[in-house]
Amino acid sequence: MSENKKFNIKLFRRLLKYVYPYKINFIFLITAAISISVFSIVNQYLLKIAVDKYITPKDYEGLIFIISLMFGVLLFKVSFQFLFVFLANILGQKVVYDIRIKLFRRIISFKMSYYDRSSVGRLVTRSVNDMETIASIFSQGLFMIISDLLLMFSVLVVMLILSIKLSLIIFLILPFILIATRLFQRAMKTAFNQVRNEVANLNSFVQERISGMKEIQIFNRESIEKSNFIKINEKHKNAWLKTVWYNSIFFPVAEISTSITIGLLVWYGGGLVGFSDSSITIGTIFLFIQLSQMLFRPLRQIADKFNTLQMGMVAANRIFNILDTNDFISDTGNLKLKKINGNVIFKNVDFSYEPKNSVFKKFNLTIKSGEKIAIVGSTGSGKTTIINLLLRFYEINGGDILIDGKSIRELSIKFLRSQISLVTQNIFLFADSIYNNIVLYNKNINKANVISAAKEIGVHNFVKKLPGSYNYNVKERGVMLSEGQKQLISFLRAYISDSNILILDEATSSIDTKTEKLIQFAISKIIQNKTSIIIAHRLSTILNSDKIIVLDKGEIKEMGSHDDLMKIKDGHYKKLFELQYQKTELVS
Ligand SMILES: Nc1ncnc2c1ncn2[C@@H]1O[C@H](COP(=O)(O)OP(=O)(O)OP(=O)(O)O)[C@@H](O)[C@H]1O
Ligand SMILES: [Mg+2]
Hints:
The chain is α/β, with parallel strands linked by helices. A hairpin with a 2-residue loop joins strand 9 and strand 10 (555-560). The strands form two sheets. A six-stranded mixed β-sheet has the order 6-7-8-3-9-10, with helices on both faces. It has a four-stranded antiparallel β-sheet with strand order 2-1-4-5, covered by helices on one side. The protein contains 20 helices and ten strands. The protein starts with a helix and ends in a 6-residue tail after the last helix. Adenosine-5'-triphosphate binds next to strand 1 and helix 11.
């Protein structure tokens, strides 16, 4: 309730800026609102004339004329009503369309650390649900309130002009209606809050169970989950029933007060008809009855509309907060080299994801053009972080990273990333065909390129066997493919791009021998002629590299060829090798 009092003018103005491009629409809307009020009142006034001038004196010809006139006015009124609803909804959708694009543009360009801090569910809710709430400001809130206020104001003016005495009757009843409405709305607000909570509970319950379906089935939790669901469903139903109950009480109460008003108007007004000092006619009483309805009806609903408006404003505030977030990697560098040779130098690099939790301190690493580097090290030692920094997913805190002698901060981010192919640990594929996942809508690559590349790295036969081969749709996140298959696709994607630096963060999950062979072959192919930085888990990749770097807690402990490193007594690599690779992989 306190929210209603905190109507934020600044926020509202900012929202109205989005209406500005549609000002013609806006002007038509206001015109329609005014016309609806005018025509509504004119129509009722014509009724008064019909009663006084034609029905009472029994002038039927005149009556037909006035009824035709009323019909004409009615047509105008409903046309404007149509226009009003239509334009209000269109305006809402147009505004939301524009804001949504702006929001998405922003969301898609934030730096990685922003996503580390934000919940995916929340961002999705912002870009979908909150947007609809903003749309309802226009389709159900703002203009409806303006239109209602206009109508109520005009009704009051007309009433006072016609008869102060009869107006007083209306004013007598008004407080009762206001109080009843207020009580009803308060009750409804609490009830609706409960409903919303229960809907959220239902949603998250169902969503979580569907995501965890395997766990439910393997642990035989079906019947427990069913009874949990019944409980939540019961609460949801009860919350709704409360609103039904309030509605069923309120409308009869409203009906009674309206009828009492009519009764009083007829009784008191009727007594005044015919007296010479009174201008009140039977028509006036008819008119007042109609006007009182026109006053009470919007009155009952206006608070709801304010609520809609307020909820929209809260949503708009949340959206604007995201739009005001400037969490970007600064892209001030505009250097674009002709071609990157692939000399990479990490110079005294300091980095931490979170303050105080340093991952690298004065980290140094030199990779020469064309070199094939394997990085090994225990989990959490900083292997993936090296890649994150090189690709500027995260910004270094100190030192510099140079490619071909140029600081990566001087290069344009787009250029930098286009020069590096990346195959990550968890491969992400879009819900699209294999072909599109490989070329990513790059028009310089055609089907023939893809097929010959696929043959070169030995994945063509595997793709060919899939239903629809390159047109096979892998669905969301590539669920239609196994982990090994996804890797093969991403190798092809990396192979076909003409970058000179390849980064491969090998997945740890083990894969069947046949796919493993395919993968080993593909890797050996894609690292040819490229500077390769491979976070290696496979013995074969390690053995094929020019240089092995052993990382531990953000520090390079050892560096050299496999044979060199195996010679170090009690060396990190030697231990790691004996522990991880010798037993498992050499056997197979
Ligand atoms: N997004 C993040 N936010 C905060 N800390 C992070 C983030 N990503 C990684 N870290 C931390 O940084 C350190 C290095 O992580 P990194 O991902 O580079 O390890 P890794 O060597 O790739 O490990 P793995 O072999 O398990 O992939 C870890 O201590 C990790 O907890
Ligand atoms: Mg990693």
